[in-house]
Amino acid sequence: MTDTRTVKSVCMDADEIERSLTRIAHQILEANHGASNIALVGILTRGDLLAHRLASKIKQIEGTDVPLGALDISFYRDDFATHLSPEVHSTDIRFDIDGLTVVLVDDVLFTGRTIRAALDALSDFGRPSCVQLAVLVDRGHRELPIRADFVGKNVPSSSHENVRLFLEEVDGVSAVEVLEMAPGDRAGSAPLGAEQPQEKEA
Amino acid sequence: MAFNHKHLINISDYSAEDITRILDTAASFRAVNERRIKKVPTLKGFTVVNMFNEPSTRTRSSFELAEKRLSCDTLNFGGSSTSTVKGESLRDTVQTLCSYKIDAIVVRDKHAGAPRKVADVSGVSVICAGDGKHQHPTQALLDLYTIRERFGRIEGLRVGIVGDIGHSRVCGSLIPALKIMGAHVTVIAPPTLMPAAPEILGADEITCDLDAALPELDVVYMLRIQRERLEGAPYPSLREYNLLFGLTEEREKLMRPEAIVCHPGPVNRGVELDDYMCDHPQRSVILDQVYSGVLVRMAVLYLLLGGTDNGVDA
Fold this sequence. Notes:
The complex is a heterodimer. Chain A has four helices and eight strands, in the order βαβαββαβββαβ. Chain A is α/β, with parallel strands linked by helices. Chain A has one domain (15-157): 3-Layer(aba) Sandwich (Rossmann fold). In chain A, α3 (113-123) links the parallel β4 and β5 (130-138). In chain B, 45% of the residues are buried. Chain B has ten helices and nine strands. Chain B has helices at 16-33, 58-69, 90-98, 114-122, 137-151, 169-180, 210-213, 238-245, 275-278, 286-304; strands at 47-52, 73-77, 104-109, 125-131, 158-162, 184-188, 205-207, 219-222, 260-262. Chain B is of the alpha/beta class. Chain B has a five-stranded parallel sheet, with helices on one face. A four-stranded parallel sheet of chain B has the order 2-1-3-4, with helices on both faces. Helices cover 35% and strands 14% of the residues of chain B. In chain B, β1, α2 and β2 (73-77) form a beta-alpha-beta unit. The radius of gyration of chain B is 20 Å and the shape is globular. Chain A: It is an enzyme of class 2 (transferase).
């Protein structure tokens, strides 16, 4: 689908992603006065990996294992009637979220519709005392009144572009790339393992 | 991977990839069904008609539950309460229903081919819930799901289907579904309960000796003996049937240690299964099949009612 895409710029490399996540981990702890009442829930298919990294950073800083979950929002999307049924992955939240501060973790914040769906999905699991949002990249173009509490990097982008995160765990290389969209492409997360980020261009 | 089907009428229209996609999606719905709130808003605003022109308890109730857990609006329709008894044709009935702006029809009918006819005249998605002695594809899918849950695979398993092969629409979908997924299928029945030309079923082996076949099987799939059909005397007595083709405590000794027992329900206890086998804590997966029915039907509705744009949105 995106074979014809061209990389316009690499806006974060692996080191920058790591530094951003370290800072976000500190910010989460600072805002919540420690790790005692927080849980991390990553939105599939890359937010869960970022949440995993954040959890290990929090463990390093505070020595605490925070509850870690993964959320698939396919069943909560608002565009079901117009798109082919998206391939679903398994939600995995094995703890009671009632009363916790749940930090939702996603890769790229764009229209806000994914986050709206995630909030709906989360409310079917219980009633957290508070929900916060951490994203690696905020690229603007919001269509809903949603903002992130913790942002790795703001990346101004045009609507003809796609901003994608690639992570070593599934893609072999970690990077955030701004891509020119080919006709017919839709913005959004790259399918898992379906494509490799291109090498940096001169 | 695209799932480009509008209807589920004949399981043979589906590839191994399509079936795997349905089973994987059903597994995701399992997580939904095990939460306190067993409902997702996915099909909010969709209307599904359950048109059951033949008695059904579990298929009908599990379709209805599947629809409700996907937030569909449902309309239950059929049987003696409808205009068909006043002489309205199937075509007129369906076109009337479609005027209500519905999105899908689930069809159970005593006539083979009725779901295809409904699809031809309706323009909406049609799901076959059993037509005559022809097809019952969601039953086959829930059986595959149950078997895959237990063994982790379907390919290479040896499945024996025992009983009233000739009158069974369960067979009509299950045999092709198992073959598509790479299982080895043996049908086991007295000659009088076999179809006239059993080779067209597509099974790998055909036999009337249950005791000889049993030690090879991973899955023993018992069909219901339809007492009402015994009047034509395909069999001398239920007792004799039980003696030769019933799965009993005695016969269990011939089964492989890990072999399981399936049955589409309702069970005639003491005929095709005795109480011991029916309630066997390790071998009997009959209640798992019932549960899988909801998951698989949720998956089918989810995949069939999705839109046509092959997009992945943020």
